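Quick one: co-fold with NAP.
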Amino acid sequence: MFEIRGKTAVVTGSGRGIGRDIAVQLARLGARVVVNVKKRQEDGKETLNMVLGYSDGILVQADVSRRDGARTLVRETLDAFGQVHILVNNAGLGIGAPFLDADDALIDKMVSTNLMSAVYCSQEFARVMQPGGCIVMMASMAGVRPMSMLSLYGISKAAVIKLAEYLALELAPKRIRVNAVAPSVVRTKMGESLIEFLGLDDEEYGMKHTLTGRMITVEEVTDAVLFLIRSESITGHTLMIDSGQALMSELSLARLGAGQE
Ligand SMILES: NC(=O)c1ccc[n+]([C@@H]2O[C@H](COP(=O)([O-])OP(=O)(O)OC[C@H]3O[C@@H](n4cnc5c(N)ncnc54)[C@H](OP(=O)(O)O)[C@@H]3O)[C@@H](O)[C@H]2O)c1
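Sure, here it is.
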């Protein structure tokens, strides 16, 4: 099993939500953690304080949807800790919109934040990562099964899943494993917009849209990420965590999006 204690881990987009929980749990397990935000320094400082309660860490403000942001993150990581073993490409943006209404600015923002951030960070970090290290991509169930109003988000997350497979092949000679996690809706700032759009509370969402009757939690997503980091025999895999939602029909949501219900 891959030992997290004593390693250096970078979690992009860890100012709040899923990224924050991953960063804090990695610190709890003894990793030095690099917290990253795009602009909300206060969120980043809060996460860093939680990290410092367990281990060492730094905060890096950098827009990882741009090449220079990814380079800044690598440089500050190496300046602080000298090496890197774990990268979690978590930064993401979930804006729902009908495909026909999406303008170029929205298309560019969705692709750069959800896909190019993972491309730039994987490339820049894999060049300096220790052998035996690993990368985990934060994908989405929307990248596996189409969800209403999420075409741009879904296609960028589908590409992230393929990126994990391609990099698992290409980085294997460097002894770097690459995997992805694909969660369904989680109650974070991002997840809340979809839940509010549907007008459901968590219990109703669980009953209507899952096989298990319950929405997944941030902690369950973190557990999936930690599992993939520790499992040295798993690479090129996407672990879906969705309470069985991907097996259910999207028809009612599609009708809702089209104003037919
Ligand atoms: N919540 C869900 O239902 C759900 C479901 C499936 C997958 N996911 C995926 O899980 C990941 C985390 O989602 P979340 O729900 O925790 O989101 P969230 O609550 O909106 O948090 C997103 C974090 O990412 C940071 N970020 C965004 N763009 C960035 C950039 N270009 N550079 C650096 N940091 C950036 C934000 O920092 P700033 O505030 O400074 O911009 C924020 O700290 C995303 O990849 C998302 O697509 C979420």
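If it helps, The chain has one domain: 8-185+217-243.
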